[in-house]
């Protein structure tokens, strides 16, 4: 081949080489993804919702006084029994027997004044002789009247201090024995406001309303 005849052929080869090198990059097609096994999407597990408040209370064992007071059923007979035991303790002049029947903050209401019940009865024991009536019945159980929150309207009509809450019971006594000789020992009427005890079943005296004055 004559000198210079390679030039056209060389130009063609170079052109073909350049055309091949200018091809764009190769991208994966959908077919290439089909070759890999598919997996379902995964999500982080959400924490379980907290139990309702009521369940938490049950699991803790709610020992609050308020919760127990709500669950205590009204029992007028038990309330009357507390009042009967009160009169027995008074005729014995026994502070030891009387103290468990009184709430810690029990009050005596008389002539508009409010005084701690324990202190009032200690003073009455010191000045009056209640043992002179020992062994006798001051107020027979069948004469005791009881009022619950449902009968608060009747208590007001009768002039009796009404129960203030759904768990209170008011017991009213009219002593058949109020005097020892010429000495007055009880008022004509005693109204006892009783509330459920905080620690054990039963009632305690929260308030005594009595029109009485020491001589």
Quick structural summary:
With 215 residues, this protein is α+β, with helices and mostly antiparallel strands.
Q: Could you please describe the fold and organization of this structure?
A:
The chain is an alpha+beta fold and 215 residues long. The chain is 34% helix and 19% strand. It has helices spanning 6-21, 30-34, 53-60, 65-71, 76-91, 95-98, 117-127, 152-157; strands at 102-110, 113-116, 145-148, 169-173, 179-180, 183-184, 190-196, 203-210. The radius of gyration is 46 Å and the shape is globular. The model is unreliable at 8-36 and 39-72 (pLDDT under 50).
Distance between the termini: 157 Å
Q: C-alpha Rg, in Å? A: 46 Å
Q: What topology, given as strand order, has the largest sheet?
A: 2-1-8-7-4-3
- The residue fraction in helices comes out at 25-40%
The count of β-strands is 8
Estimated share of beta-strand residues:
15-25%
Question: What labels would you give this structure?
Answer:
globular, two-stranded antiparallel ribbon, alpha+beta, 8 helices, 8 strands, 34% helix, 215 residues, 19% strand
Write the layout of secondary structure elements.
Layout: H1 6-21, H2 30-34, H3 53-60, H4 65-71, H5 76-91, H6 95-98, E1 102-110, E2 113-116, H7 117-127, E3 145-148, H8 152-157, E4 169-173, E5 179-180, E6 183-184, E7 190-196, E8 203-210
């Amino acid at each position: 081949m004559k000198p210079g005849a390679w030039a056209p052929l060389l130009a063609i080869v170079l052109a073909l080489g350049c055309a091949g090198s200018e091809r764009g990059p190769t991208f994966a097609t959908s077919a290439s993804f089909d070759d890999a096994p598919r997996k379902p999407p995964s999500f982080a597990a959400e924490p379980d919702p907290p139990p309702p408040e009521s369940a938490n209370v049950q699991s803790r064992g709610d020992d609050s006084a308020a919760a127990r007071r709500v669950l205590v059923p009204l029992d007028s007979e038990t309330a009357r029994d507390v009042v009967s035991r009160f009169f027995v303790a008074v005729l014995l002049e026994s502070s030891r027997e009387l103290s468990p029947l009184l709430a810690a903050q029990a009050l005596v209401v008389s002539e508009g004044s409010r005084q701690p019940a324990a202190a009032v009865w200690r003073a009455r024991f010191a000045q009056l002789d209640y043992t002179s009536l020992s062994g006798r019945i001051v107020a027979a159980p069948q004469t005791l009247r009881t009022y619950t929150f449902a009968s608060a309207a009747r208590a007001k009509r009768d002039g009796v201090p009404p129960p203030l809450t759904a768990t209170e019971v008011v017991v009213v006594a009219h002593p058949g024995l109020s005097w020892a000789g010429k000495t007055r020992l009880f008022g004509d009427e005693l109204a006892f406001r009783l509330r459920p005890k905080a620690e054990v079943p039963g009632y305690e005296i929260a308030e005594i309303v009595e029109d009485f004055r020491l001589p």
